[in-house]
Design goal:
By secondary structure, the protein is an alpha/beta fold. The chain has one domain (4-227): Rossmann fold (3-Layer(aba) Sandwich), CATH 3.40.50. Helix content is 38%, strand content 22%. It has helices at 4-18, 25-43, 55-67, 94-100, 113-125, 163-170, 188-199; strands at 82-86, 105-109, 131-134, 152-157, 174-184, 203-212, 219-227. A 7-stranded mixed sheet has the order 3-2-1-4-5-7-6, sandwiched between helices. Helix 1 crosses helix 2 and helix 1 crosses helix 3 (55-67). It is globular, with a radius of gyration of 17 Å.
């Protein structure tokens, strides 16, 4: 397993290649490295990420991939934003974002109990304040009691393959001027076409941002979706 210094060096290289910088970078990298080491320990007992992945692949495919969302969260706005991460798993992307942006308000939804306990452990270990984890699953055509009356400026997920389904579930919790962010791979064009056909004017794709992961060069696309009538 990589040492803490190696983890931090790998992340610094990756962030540099992605053109991203972190506020209080030394402290943020230390927290990310500790998060990674705890993930590796827990992953030997419960299935958090694929065990076949190398340390470098975990850092790139999960941690650096989560940090691509920083391109939509300028530092000057982070304290005013709120993020709902649906089906966060081991904390990707929401807990990673809060780890490096501690003023960013984040709510994590993860119904699987083992992962829920892992998330609570990381929050305690890193002494994170503006983050909450709920062991709930969003349901179609129903409001989730734990989120009743709450709305967020960003609703995101890496867990949903279907954009239309995700937007339907996320819509009740989106603020009037908020954005739903779908994190997609190279097949996003067909999904967006299907989404536009099914939505019939309720929501629209306001922006797309194409990215590459720094080492594998794997393609990523961030798709920003807004309510119709809202300007980008």
């Amino acid at each position: 397993m990589l040492a803490i210094s190696d983890v931090e060096h790998f992340l610094v290289q990756g962030l540099g290649l992605m053109g991203l910088t972190l506020g209080n970078q030394a402290e943020a990298l230390e927290r990310l490295a500790l998060y990674f080491l705890e993930l590796k320990k827990w992953n030997s007992k419960i299935n958090l990420v694929a065990r076949a992945l190398s340390d470098e692949q975990i850092l790139e495919n999960h941690f650096l991939d989560s940090l691509t969302l920083l391109s939509l969260l300028p530092p000057e706005n982070q304290a005013q934003e709120s993020v709902l991460d649906v089906g966060t798993g081991a904390g990707f992307p929401g807990l990673v974002l809060n780890t490096v942006c501690q003023e960013l308000s984040v709510v994590l939804l993860e119904p699987r109990k083992n992962r829920y306990y892992f998330l609570k452990h990381i929050i305690r270990t890193l002494a994170l304040q503006e983050v909450e984890v709920l062991a709930v699953r969003l349901g179609e055509n129903t409001r989730t009691e734990e989120l009743e009356g709450r709305q967020f400026s960003f609703v995101t997920s890496r867990a949903f393959a279907d954009m239309h389904e995700f937007v339907s579930l996320a819509a009740p919790y989106l603020s009037r001027v908020g954005r739903i962010i779908c994190m997609k791979g190279p097949g996003a064009a067909q999904e967006m076409e299907n989404f536009t056909r099914l939505e019939k004017g309720n929501f629209y794709v306001a922006e797309t941002k194409r990215l590459q992961l720094p080492f594998s060069k794997a393609e990523r696309m961030l798709v920003s979706i807004r309510r119709s009538g809202q300007e980008p």
